[in-house]
Amino acid sequence: MGRVRPTKVYPLLKGVRMNKPISSALVLAAAIVAGRAMHAQTAGPVMLDPNLRVRTVVSGLNQPTSIAFLGVNDMLVLEKATGKVQRVVNGVIQSTVLDLAVNGASERGLLGIALHPNFPANPGVYLYWTCAAPSPPPENPFFPTREHCDDPPVSGPDTAAILQVPLRGNRVDRFIWNGSTLTFDRNLIMLHAFQNDGAPDPPGQGDATQGPAGNHNGGVIRFGPDGKLYVIIGDNG
To answer: Which residues pair with 113 in a beta bridge?
Structure first.
């Protein structure tokens, strides 16, 4: 009778043990599946649910970020880097109802929108966005030139320069919808935006080589069932 070789077993999951040939086959199968998945991604999305379909609602927008529906086939769409709130009706950009001077660098810009829970009886429209400010001087780039932007916010050129933002440049404002345009009502909160931590003084901070950043701004705003407005902000890079 020939010698019987012991079968090696390897842990795969907690409480599960498999022999080597089977585990090797699983690894190969996983690699094949992963390869097919990558191929499927490059070929485009595939709808698996027969009850759903994908279609283009509107084209011609510049970096759309958020949508608020005014009615059936009637929506306000935010453009991140242009600061524009576009009204889209029946799949067509009908008009620009607001144009803010934004800092759209990195992940900043016009980011979030929420309608008042009693809209349109209460015509309040709330926007989360990043305003702009002059750059700090080259000899001292670690301190912003302004603490915040003035009210009311102004229209004007947008910027993609990381340092052209006040200290509290992320803000949530309330606007009034009159049926065709948005008009500034008041600011609700101003949040941190300027991020340039690589100052050499005091020494030993550990971030002297870190450059300025404009990411992790959050931007989602939603009304909760309690009627309060909830604002999400990140760590600003």
So the answer is: 127
Residue with tokens 């948005």: 182
Max CA pair span of the chain: 93
Amino acid at 213: A
Alpha helices in the chain (DSSP H): 20-43
- Does residue 17 form part of some domain? no
What phi and psi values does residue 146 have, to the nearest 5 degrees? -140, 155
Residue type, 50: P
Tally of domains in the chain = 1
Instruction: State the Rg of the chain over Cα.
Output: 26
Which tens digits make up the pLDDT trace of 83-113? 999 999 999 999 999 999 999 999 999 999 9
Look at the block and give the residue holding tokens 């006040």: 166
CATH at residue 206: 2.120.10.30
For tokens 């950009």, the residue is 93
Q: Which residue segment(s) compose the domain that 71 sits in?
A: 64-231
Span 6-23, mean pLDDT?
46
